[in-house]
Amino acid sequence: MNFKKLGLSLLAGVTLFASSSNLSALAQEENETVKIGANMETSGYSASYGQAMYEAIQLAVEEVNNEGGLLDGREVEIIHYDNKSDKTETASVATRLVEEGAVALIGPGATDLVLAQNPVAEQSEVPAVIPAATADDLTMDDDGNVLDWVFRLAFSYTYQANAAARFATDELGAQKAVVLVDQSNDYSVGQAEPFIKEWEALGNEVVLEESYTSGDTDFSAVLTTLMATEFDVIYLPAFYTEGGLITKQAREMGLTQPILSGHGFASDAYVELAGASNATDVYFTSNFYTGTEEEAGKAFVEAYEAKFGKTPDTFGALGYDGAKLLFQAIEDAGSTDRTAVRDAIENMETFTGGVTGEFYIDEEHNAVKPAPMLHLVDGEVAEIYEVDGSSNE
Q: Are 184 and 238 in contact (CB under 8 A)?
């Protein structure tokens, strides 16, 4: 027997089998959907934000699939589980999405939920795009190092707070402010502190700082204190829930001073709670305005209204851009490999495929772009200003 010839024949058979297996695996991958995991809160305290983002993500997926999908024809599949605005549930949902093969995660909406997901993203080495959360250190670990797998699109606490302080000083001529802060809410505290710092650095005075707690519905005691105080503006960093009620009660008590806030007010639910006539002389930073004249923005609004029968808000726009950013990164990577997608996000020079403006990702994994300040009168946007909240340090 010719053992050498037999050996070569066996090797050829093994090689042929391996090649066939690789081709089969490649063909299988090409036929598989590209799975995106949506960890969004569609119930609980921040459901208004999460629902808006999830709807816009569905729209983005529908559009990309109608255009032929990604990577030469692979359909995009969105896998969503409601994290119920609960931190423990958020971490569990993130783990489940990773185990079910999500190429990347998008969401959650609120900062405390994102912080619960971050360890899962880092340990699982899966890219996570965070559309709307705003904590300054959202993309950093406890030692101040940039997280490898987490990227954020919205403005930070300090950016929004600085912008509000400078706007009230320069545009409204204000010098005396009262600050109403929810001490139980990181979003509120996270903006109140840098606002006060910037406000006083501008030579202004905080004449009163009052506290309330998430879940409160009667703010008459706090607002009565304001009635006896001389001031120019109210700074109210809050979610739409308490923010809407405080605005309503303040206006009904006769407090007419301008109210400034961050993008927590950028929801139709805020105007519904406040009442349209009460939502007057209200200013807040936002990432998107539904009355935009930009072609991409107008097309997004029209498509969203056609699909869901309502107008999108800034959270919907951020969710839409988060999905579009992931689609671009997957195409740039030419693969669904998580590391390749992560690298593509980090190395993207300029993202132009969204509706919240062109931006790039900085070294701390935050999107860099200009911020609009919206002025509400009778619940409608009356004016738009461009503001700068970048650090002076």
A: no
Calpha distance 12→20 (Å, rounded): 12
Q: What angle do CA 176, 179, 180 make, to 5 degrees?
A: 150
Token output for 332: 């740039």
Residue 52's φ and ψ, nearest 5 degrees, are -60, -40
3-class SS string, 170-233: HCCCCCEEEEEEECCCHHHHHHHHHHHHHHHHCCCEEEEEEEECCCCCCCHHHHHHHHCCCCCE
One-letter amino acid of 331: E
Q: Within a 10 A sphere around the Cβ of 349, how many other Cβ atoms?
A: 7
Using 50, 70 and 90 to split pLDDT, how confident is the model at 267?
confident
- Measured distance CA(90)–CA(95) in Å, rounded: 9
φ and ψ of 214, to 5 deg: -50, 135
CA angle 126, 132, 133 (to 5 degrees): 80
Half-sphere exposure of 382 (CA within 13 A, CB side): 11
Query: Token pair of 212, please?
Result: 């309330």
Residues 6 or more apart whose CB falls under 8 angstroms from that of 84 comprise: 41, 43, 44
CA 44, 185, 163: angle at the middle one, nearest 5? Answer: 115
For the record, the structure tokens of 127 come out as: 């890219």
At residue 268 the predicted structure's pLDDT band, cuts being 50, 70 and 90, is confident
In terms of pTM, does the model score above 0.85?
Answer: no
Tokens linked to 341 = 């997608």
3-state SS assignment for residue 216: coil
pLDDT at 29: 56
Kindly list the distances between the CA atom of residue 296 and the CA atoms of 310, 332, 392, in Å, as whole numbers in the listed order: 18, 21, 32
Residues in contact with 201: Cβ distance below 8 Å, sequence separation at least 6, in sequence order: none
List all residues 6 or more positions away from 312 whose beta carbon is below 8 Å from its beta carbon.
Answer: 52, 55, 56, 288, 290, 300, 301, 304, 305, 320
What is the chain's Cα-based Rg?
Answer: 24
- Give the whole-angstrom CA distance, residue 75 versus residue 73: 6
- Please name which of 175, 230, 156, 77 lies closest in space to residue 390, comparing C-alpha atoms: 156
Locate tokens 């839409």: which residue? 320
Q: How many CB atoms lie within 10 A of CB 326?
A: 27
